[in-house]
């Protein structure tokens, strides 16, 4: 069953729906350019009010998804998944509707241009009309249309076309009434609409911000101001708590949920306590300033798709730079996202450092301190496994996590670099009939493991390295009858006939030029190499798709597709699901590559084809 008037007239326009603001913007620009003053002043006011309302919704959305501030105040503990985010993608449709209706009102009543800036009587009249007309009107309209609530999301701006038409009437009556009585003012319109949206967002935030002590001291207030907990019960226990902002009308209509105040007090009181302990933590880090805006608490919809540089991000770069400096000076590791997998809580924590900082010699000690603090915190609260992202396990930084394990031998949390599964993903991407590969970054942890594994498969490995000592050390680790499959090369020209390149060290377009046509570039280098050759193919960074039964996942991990995580993240997930009790740090155990790969497949993780 589809709710009546549930579809928006412009739902198929995509981003072109914003052209509906065109007549308003055109009138403002025309007056500004060709006339002495802006005659249709309310056209400008409507645009400003829409921008202000959008900002209010965005700020509330950012606050509710800033988990390091709100995790202990969340009402519903489930995460917001991709399906819900997609349903709410066009949450701002109502702003267009209200703008068009307001523009029509301005055309019908041109005297609105004569409204004074301030009239205190207007606020009194407006409050009276809101309480006596808007509140009961919304209550009964909401109660009568409650059968369609199952079609609505829990977001303040996302509802059907029908519900927002009702809201237009609810908002419009106090404003129109005050103006018709001669008490209207510009500040009254701005103030009422802003307060209305603020309270709507408050109720849908899923974060309890109203202290229960307020109602203990002023008991009557609980009938005049709802709370996020109060409104959440309307969505979880249908048939109760229909009010707009004032529970008084639920009490009068006998629809007030009896558990409202008890649940509110419990959630408010428990906010000072630690929440549920995660079973697994992925310890990530920033990449660059632009990608830092891919965080869910910046733009949740943007974070729900793979990262790519967008034009709208560029004006925000100065803000991102300032935030980076503040985090460098004061910030600690913080929670950024979570999901649930088969009853296990998995979280992503972020070390507040960006990629370039990991290569500053004077910053390395501070970065290790932040990583160590995160590991010790995870150990203290009872986390089972913590996995280190790319640069957090850098060999030059901490020996792939060895530094922390040796310094704290009694750690109960298992520290995992995830490189074993990363190697497994890369190796299983290579066709079985390949007889020769070219390997850069050949003496790194991953390069060593890949070379030793492939030589056991009787694959000839051209290992690019200038260090004969490092090459020979790795060669001696191979079985005696396989050592001749490892070949040291010092120039890219040596691979001009090899069509399988495994890139573990960044290579320039010029260096790529030595690869023959039809070459496929596998890679485990951060950042990924530029896809320069049109006659070649390029693999993505090693990654795996999480099982289908993952719950509450609503953000993409950097450039990965929805539901896909980096292999080092997936490696920690497998470690936790298997219940392994060993640390995975330092050099990769080549004998465990197949074991980890089979365990990943057993638990439903799937490789992401890059060919």
UniProtKB/TrEMBL annotation:
Compartment(s) where it occurs, according to its Swiss-Prot or TrEMBL record: Membrane
Sequence intervals crossing the membrane: 15-34, 41-60, 94-112, 124-141, 161-183, 311-330
Membrane association type: Multi-pass membrane protein
Residue span(s) of domain Very-long-chain aldehyde decarbonylase CER1-like C-terminal: 437-607
Predominant location category: membrane
Source superkingdom: Eukaryota
This protein's UniProt keywords: Membrane, Transmembrane, Transmembrane helix
Gene3D superfamilies (UniProt xref): NAD(P)-binding Rossmann-like Domain (3.40.50.720)
GO CC annotation: membrane
Coiled-coil parts of chain: none
UniProt name for this protein: Very-long-chain aldehyde decarbonylase CER1-like C-terminal domain-containing protein
Upper taxonomic lineage: Eukaryota, Viridiplantae, Streptophyta, Embryophyta, Tracheophyta
């Amino acid at each position: 069953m589809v709710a009546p008037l549930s579809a928006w007239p412009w739902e198929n326009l995509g981003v072109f729906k914003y052209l509906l603001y065109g007549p308003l913007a055109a009138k403002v620009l025309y007056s500004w350019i060709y006339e002495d003053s802006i005659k249709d002043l309310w056209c400008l006011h409507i645009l400003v009010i829409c921008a202000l309302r959008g900002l209010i919704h965005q700020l509330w959305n950012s606050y509710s998804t800033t988990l390091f501030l709100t995790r202990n105040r969340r009402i519903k503990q489930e995460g917001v998944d991709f399906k819900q985010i997609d349903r709410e993608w066009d949450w701002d449709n109502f702003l267009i509707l209200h703008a068009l209706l307001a523009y029509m009102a301005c055309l019908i009543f041109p005297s609105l241009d004569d409204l004074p800036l301030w009239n205190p009587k207007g606020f009194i009249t407006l409050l009276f009309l809101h309480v006596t007309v808007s509140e009961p009107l919304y209550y009964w309209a909401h109660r009568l249309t409650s059968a369609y609530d199952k079609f609505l999301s829990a977001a303040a701006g996302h509802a059907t076309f029908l519900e927002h038409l009702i809201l237009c009437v609810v908002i419009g009556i106090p404003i129109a009434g005050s103006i018709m009585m001669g008490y209207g003012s510009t500040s009254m319109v701005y103030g009422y609409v802003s307060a209305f949206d603020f309270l709507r967002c408050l109720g849908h935030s899923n974060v309890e911000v109203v202290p229960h002590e307020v109602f203990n001291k002023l008991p009557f207030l609980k009938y005049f101001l709802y709370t996020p907990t109060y409104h959440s019960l309307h969505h979880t226990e249908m048939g109760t708590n229909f009010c707009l902002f004032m529970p008084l009308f639920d009490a009068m209509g006998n629809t007030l949920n009896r558990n409202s105040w008890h649940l509110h007090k419990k959630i408010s009181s428990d906010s000072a306590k630690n929440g549920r302990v995660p079973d697994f933590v992925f310890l990530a880090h920033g990449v660059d300033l632009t990608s830092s805006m891919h965080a869910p608490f910046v733009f949740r919809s943007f974070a729900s798709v793979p990262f790519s540089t967008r034009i709208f991000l560029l004006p925000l770069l100065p803000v991102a730079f300032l935030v980076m400096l503040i985090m460098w000076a004061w910030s600690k590791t913080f929670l950024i996202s979570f999901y649930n997998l088969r009853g296990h809580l998995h979280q992503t924590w972020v070390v507040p450092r960006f990629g370039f900082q990991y290569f500053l010699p004077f910053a390395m000690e501070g970065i290790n301190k932040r990583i160590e603090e995160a590991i010790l915190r995870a150990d203290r609260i009872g986390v089972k496994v913590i996995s280190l992202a790319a640069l957090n396990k850098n060999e030059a930084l901490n020996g792939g996590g060895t530094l922390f394990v040796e310094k704290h031998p009694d750690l109960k949390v298992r520290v995992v670099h995830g490189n074993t599964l990363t190697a497994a993903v890369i190796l299983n991407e290579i066709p079985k009939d390949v007889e020769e590969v070219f390997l850069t970054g050949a003496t790194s942890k991953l390069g060593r493991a890949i070379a030793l594994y492939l030589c056991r498969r009787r694959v000839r490995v051209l290992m690019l390295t200038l260090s004969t000592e490092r090459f020979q050390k790795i060669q001696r680790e191979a079985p005696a009858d396989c050592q001749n499959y490892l070949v040291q090369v010092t120039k890219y020209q040596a691979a001009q006939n090899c069509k399988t390149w495994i890139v573990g060290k960044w290579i320039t377009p010029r260096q790529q030029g030595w690869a023959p046509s039809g070459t496929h570039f596998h890679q485990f280098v951060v950042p990924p190499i530029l896809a320069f050759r049109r006659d070649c193919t390029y693999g993505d960074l090693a990654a795996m798709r999480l099982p289908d039964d993952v719950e509450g996942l609503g953000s993409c991990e950097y450039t990965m597709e929805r539901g896909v995580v980096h292999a080092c993240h997936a490696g920690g997930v497998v470690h936790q699901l298997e219940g392994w009790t060993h640390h995975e740090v330092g050099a990769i155990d080549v004998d465990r590559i197949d074991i980890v790969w089979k365990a990943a497949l057993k638990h439903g993780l799937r490789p992401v084809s890059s060919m």
